[in-house]
């Protein structure tokens, strides 16, 4: 069973990496042209900020996992999360959840618990992202929310759904529907709060990565540009996630980001930022998965040889 799981895991990992590479190479000509207008320093800083955002994203998921019970070591949770996240490059948003559930079993995290945490962490990211988008866009460019008026209505409902009594009741219902009612999973209030705090840090870092790219093209009005960049990226990410048939939100996210940035840059510059941002995020995803794999291997070697 273990060998079959390893083969399936390796195959899934290879497919996800191949699709990740295709998502970049298919637009290499556009990317080469875009990079002639952006300074290498801006792209480098944006990449570092995107990587930092991914760390906060993993810690948001880990905080929710800790809110349901014992957690594996940090290197192990990084491997579960970042390798599972490669599933978002396979069409259909469900694959990242499935991959995390399978990877978690190797560290004695049940499928039910993995699924609850994966879906719960996504809900936290969506709600916090929507809230940040509404606040920042309303502060910097109130008119930009007319296109996404639904976010203003949905965010309060999302916050209500994340309250532990409501959240745990929904979880119990879902587990019964999936015939997993014999595996009760409850999330503590501290777990939800910790997850939301790290999610907010993630959105700030992701927003800054977009801001660095936008400011390279539009250096005026720094405060407004920072707010719009953060809000536009958060809202674009939410839109991209909700379009489940698009791998990693490819297409819808870029279109939403172009619309969101319309108040600070023209459409051609906004499209350039969206394209470079996409590639930066893909590189960050691949880098995070690679580092997690190396860290996991080093941990296993240390455990096998013993500490000096």
Automatic annotation (TrEMBL):
For the keyword ATP-binding, the answer is no
Q: Where are the transmembrane segments?
A: 38-56, 115-141, 147-167, 187-211, 223-245
Keyword Repressor attributed: no
Q: Which GO terms describe its cellular component?
A: plasma membrane
Q: Where in the cell is it found?
A: Cell membrane
This protein's membrane topology, according to the annotation, is: Multi-pass membrane protein
Kindly state which keywords UniProt assigns to this record, in alphabetical order: Cell membrane, Membrane, Transmembrane, Transmembrane helix
Q: Which InterPro entries match?
A: L-PG_synthase/AglD
* Highest taxon of source: Bacteria
What is the name of the protein in this document?
Flippase-like domain-containing protein
């Amino acid at each position: 069973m273990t060998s079959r799981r390893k083969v399936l895991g390796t195959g899934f990992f290879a497919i996800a990496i191949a699709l990740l590479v295709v998502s970049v190479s298919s637009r290499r000509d556009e990317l080469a042209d875009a990079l002639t207008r952006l300074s290498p320093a801006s792209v480098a800083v944006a990449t570092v900020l995107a990587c930092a955002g991914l760390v906060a994203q993993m810690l948001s998921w880990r905080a929710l996992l800790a809110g349901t019970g014992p957690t594996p070591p940090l290197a192990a949770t990084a491997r579960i999360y970042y390798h599972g996240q490669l599933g978002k490059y396979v069409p259909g948003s469900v694959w990242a959840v499935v991959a995390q559930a399978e990877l978690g079993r190797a560290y004695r995290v049940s499928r039910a618990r993995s699924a609850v945490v994966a879906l719960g962490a996504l809900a936290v990211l969506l709600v916090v992202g929507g809230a940040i988008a509404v606040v920042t866009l309303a502060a910097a460019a109130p008119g930009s929310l007319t296109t996404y008026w639904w976010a203003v209505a949905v965010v309060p409902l999302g916050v209500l759904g994340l309250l532990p009594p409501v959240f745990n009741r929904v979880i119990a219902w879902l587990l019964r529907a999936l015939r997993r009612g014999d595996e009760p999973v409850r999330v503590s209030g501290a777990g939800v709060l910790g997850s939301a705090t790290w999610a907010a840090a993630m959105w700030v870092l992701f927003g800054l990565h977009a801001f660095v790219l936008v400011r390279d093209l539009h250096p005026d009005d720094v405060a407004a540009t920072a707010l719009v960049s953060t809000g536009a990226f958060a809202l674009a990410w939410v839109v991209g996630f909700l379009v489940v048939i698009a791998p990693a939100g490819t297409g819808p996210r870029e279109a939403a980001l172009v619309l969101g940035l319309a108040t600070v840059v023209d459409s051609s510059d906004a499209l350039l930022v969206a394209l470079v941002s996409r590639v930066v995020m893909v590189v960050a995803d691949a880098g995070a998965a690679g580092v997690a794999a190396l860290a996991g291997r080093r941990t296993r070697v240390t455990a096998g040889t013993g500490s000096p």
